[in-house]
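Quick question: what would this complex look like in 3D?
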Amino acid sequence: MTLVLLQTLILLAVAPFIVGLIRKVKARLQCRRGASPFQPYADLAKLFRKEPVVSTATSWIFTATPYILFASTLAAGLLVPIFASQMPLSFAGNIIALVYLLALGTFFLILAGLDAGSAFGGMGSSREAIVASLTEPAMIVSIFAIALTAGSTNLSTIVHKTALLEGIVTDPAPHLMALAALFIVTLAETGRVPVDNPATHLELTMIHEAMVLEYSGRYLALLEWAAGIKLLVLLTLIANVFAPWGIATSPTPAAIGIGLAVYLVKVSGLAVLIGVIESMFAKLRLFRVPELLGVAFILALLGLVFFYTLRG
Amino acid sequence: MMTLALLGLLACYTAGILLPPCLPGRPKAQNILANGSAIAASLFGILLGVTGLLASAPLNASLPSTLPLLAFAIRIDPLAAFFVLTISLAGLAVSVYALGYLAEFYGRSPIGLMGSLYNGFLLSMTLVIIADNGFFFLIVWELMSLVSYVLVVTEHENADVRYAGLFYLIMTHVGTAFIILTFLIFFQQTGSFSFEAFRHPEQPLAEGLRTLAFLAALIGFGVKAGIVPLHVWLPYAHPAAPSHVSALMSGVMIKTAIYALLRVYFDFLGGQFPWWWGFTILAVGAASALLGVMYALMEHDLKSLLAFHSVENIGIILLGIGAGMIFQTYGLPELAALGLLAGLYHTINHALFKALLFLGAGSLLYATHTRNMEEYGGLLRRMPWTGFCFLIGAVSIAALPPTNGFVSEWLVFQSLFLSFHLPAVFLKLMLPIAAAILALTSALALACFAKAFGLSFLALPRSAHARHAEEVPVAMRLGMGGLAAACAFLGLAPMVVVPLLDRVTGPLAGVSIEGRVLALDGWAVAPTNVEFSSISTPAIAVMLIALAGLGLLLAWIFGGRLKRRAYKTWGCGITLTPRMEYTATGFVQPIKRVFSTLYRPTVKLETEFLDESQYFAKRRRFEFHIEPVFQKYLYDPVVLFFSAAAGRLRIIQTGNLNLYLAYIFVTLILLLLTAV
């Protein structure tokens, strides 16, 4: 129970920092000073205190969505081992359940985008629908490739076995392919460049921002927070599934302390990497995104083929 | 107990068939009588299904018949009991709903006749499931098709409805021909039409005949199930019927075909297959799932959209069954049972949520008098009950946790993932690819139901119909609410469902897996063991509620008491009107473009300019349609061939009576000659 509470707390606390860190890295690479990586905390605090304005065209879906998204994203996060490899809640869902919990949030976000009746929201929803549809096959196949090497689709088991290097097939090729695929999927799922640009408010290019355009006050705060948590969850997935070393394999306080420190270093490193990628690449045209996700799918599939052929 | 339930069911349906027409001119009494008997019969059916699932031995009964080969034999084993239960659950909710819905048809259609046919339809479906004689099966199968045809053409004033009915009638008879072929193969081997004889033939069928029986059954029952490419009639016929009948046709009737396939493959053919049988089912399932949802996305007629989703869901069911058959081939009965269990779980789930969604569509039709989604909008505030129930259905069919659709799709995923136990590398790779197709399918289904719910129920009303819509009567809400509750229950209580399903799959695969699938005292579902993978929908539900509560708490801590202001949506400086909203066509445009190789869309824009200047358009004409690939390349050539052949043959038909007599004479002579 304490582990679960601690994990919830870490997800809540670290997510804004990761968002801020990516912004800072981007600013530095653009020769700007940029705001402190802790700026998102101040933004959230301010948003929470603001009076929300709700459109008269909307229904209860609009006001319920921030809470549903927040809950489903956090629930997905609780299925991923963060600092300890064996989580008490791991029985509640495996890696497919995680994908579908994130999809639950996406579903309501798409509805909320349509609810206010503005054309921008509808446009964002429509684009989100196609991006989400195309990421899912790549995600499932890369997950399967990982699951095969560890002999399990349960995240705790995968992480635990990989951390201890026990009972897994230590063959880097399928792993690397799946890693590349999952990284592309993460960029698409969390609305980063080259699929979407989180910094833009230009109507014609935005996806995620267009869906939440009508939100304000505490609703927006919850949505922003949830978006940060989603990014953190997917980065955690990459960090701990592919390089779980350092994670606490037994629940002693010392091991958990080390696990936490290593975790923060790993996700910060990935955040810096994303910042660099966002500075190096331009956003793709919407209709080029399927090609990118097609590449992810093929990579994942190759991972699978390698797994079977390399083992003979 | 089972006998009592069976007799009660037969008596109530018979009363429902015979009595309503006896009250001419009193539509309300007819309605109550017809649906009342259907409700009573469904309750007996639920009892029959549950007792049949729990019974230690199957129930056999038969009526003597004077005709050779025909025996009115019935048999209720767990497989039949499960499908009776599925039919009766959906039938119960739909009949309650129909009490209110039929008010629409007072004075327009003969309610008594509709009531009789409706009861006959339910009865014939039940008889199809419990029939234990090939001849008898074909009679009730045909009855089911014909009764449903008559129900489809209820609104026969409409030419589209007549066309849909005719198309259905032709396709279903093509299917029946193949079913007859299947049974004839068994008959030829056993000399009897009794299913008991099919089950235990004295000599096993030759390899070629087995293959023929497999294929003929797949085509024959595939037409009814609506698998690709035999699905073309389904999106026309299912929506054309009155909504409560659509709910039964799409939710339940297509399941009789799934039942029959399982009966033929696992019961008559003994569950011994070459690997490519299972692979064929898997491939057909994957194609149906993907194409079903892709065509559904392009539909803006709500009921047609739902009909296409039936093609998709039959595909998902077949993915589970196909995986099960493959595992059976390679001697992995526990995994085979898992695949079958996943398929059957999805079968009952689909019956419930598809019926729910069709009833929701019926309510929208009732309230707005249109099926076109482009004319809905803003209905959630006007019809909160209908909207909420439809949302539950949409979340279930999109397989989102913690609903029932999620549990069954998750189980299908798991059975596909367990392919690494197979010895053949080809299949090891094919099953995960099927899983990837399933992932794409379910993501597109999510998009499709976000569209269906979002554009129907949210934002501003797009037409006067939608502006004046009102919530539907209590009986209709009750029917939908019951189904929504059932969807939630089946999602949250797999510990109740799995043991019941295990009693069905146990005899088919030869091994019980209840103990393996239910982990942690039934609070989690784990296909092999908790270490490998598990989900617990109750735990997910608790997590979601607790974390949403945490969100509320955080908002309160950081923001204090909620003050909020209502204001109109920013419309870039002008007042927002429904015309500025995203349309259904606009919503799916990116998907259409990404998958244009499949859809082959035609877009035509003709502009007529003013004579004075070509900068001002007088009139614009926009045309858009998607090419129906199967119809154009598969069905049209066949139809053309037969019309041409018939044209050629017409020369022998002169209208001269003497010539016809001569034909008869010549035929007789030829027959006599060949007889000698």
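Answer marked as accepted. Chain B has a mean pLDDT of 91.
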